[in-house]
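Researcher: Checking consistency across runs. Here is EmrB/QacA subfamily drug resistance transporter again:
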Amino acid sequence: MSDDQPAARSRWLALAVLSAQTLMIVLDQTIVNVALPAIRDDLGFSPSSLSWVVNAYAISFGGLLLLAGRLGDLAGRRRVFLAGMAVFTLASLLAGFAWDAGTLMAARFLQGAGGAASTAVALGMVVRLFPEPAGRAKALGTFSFVQAAGGSIGSTAGGVLTQALSWHWIFLINLPIGVVAGLVALRVLENDRGLGFGAGADWLGAALVTAALMLGVYTIVGLDTHSLAPTLGTGAVSLVLLAAFLVRQRRARDPLLPLRIFASRGLSGANLTMALLVSAMFGFQFLVVLYLRQVLGLSAQATGLAMVPIAATIAVVSLAVSPRVATRFGDFRVLLAGLLLIGGGLAWLARVPADGGYAADVLGPTLAMGIGFGLAMPALMSLGMGDARPEDTGLASGLFNTTQQVAGALGLSVLAVLAATRTESLTRVPAGEALTSGYRLAFWVGTGLVAAAFVVTVLVLRPGVAARRTGEPGATVPDRALPQL
């Protein structure tokens, strides 16, 4: 008993370190948004280049996740996590003291690279730390809350730090957090050796997929600013590089991404469901803020406070409710319930009027979506990661995070473009009604994406389906946690 208690405390302390670093990285994806005007005025960014304070981070982060995940399997997840923390922290120091626009964009690129390294292996480390179902459900609930709520917290923190101190502190605040988390991580994280670079050091494949993902993310984040020809051109080159990478993986002796990993219906189905769900949710978060600001006329501070209930709901559900219901009813049923709530919330939100109010028209659907997201994300992670081989957990973790980043960027860009196009087409109606019409269209499209995620879940992730069709070991394990209702 006494031996088990310290071990349990060490595992939860390790989870706290992994969650703290993940929260810091997720925060940095959104914390700069509120500070962009101050950064522009101080460093002399042009209106067209200011978006690259965000895009430089997104491109390196999204492009390097898959490579970082595989490096974790080869070199050891602890080493890659600590290296990523160090790069991210030092890059934050450079960003905080940036003296011109070029320095800040370079620092943001390095932040994204460090964030990719530590984030890519974190989920795999959580799964390895908590092999038993009950503990894993609680751990994934905590981890998914950090990822889901970080965006809302970042927007609020960015405004507070910029107004109270200066924009420099949105980056400098990472220093003490990174140093403390790094020191604790050295003590509590397992020192795994990894498979060694001889087991999969496919550097040509790494170059191809990293270039493909970076160029793909570049294309996606520029959908609303680039003209059609450059967008099609960069998108085509990205697809060609991705195709070359897949050919390389079929022929390489030690592939970076063994294609056998996609033979797991659990992992493949969970990634597809994740892509559809995250596409809808990222777009929702962006567009609902625009509705609150541009249509309802809320201030920046009031808008930030308006997003607190959904973050708090995700926290309560993912930390306290999701582990219990997952243990009682199984991840599959919990995921279905979460998707129904998210889809219902989006459909409800798609009926918002131009003369609406926050309490009457926004609070209810966002709370429903918060409950649904708090239920769905831990269950989805558990279903996907549960089928990964022990030697592939870093790669599977990197794949999950890559799916989230690329799908989130794509969903945000596409839904924003759809909303803007719809608004611009309504030239003879009041501005508020035109904006609302665009947002309603985007919310309906988001509802369709969640409905597609529900269908994929039923067809692919239903317990017993994988076992009957592929004979995967462990595919029927969730049935033991699925009592008849």
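Researcher: Does this match what you'd expect to see?
Model: One thing to look at in this run: Residues 393-425 form the longest helix (33 residues).
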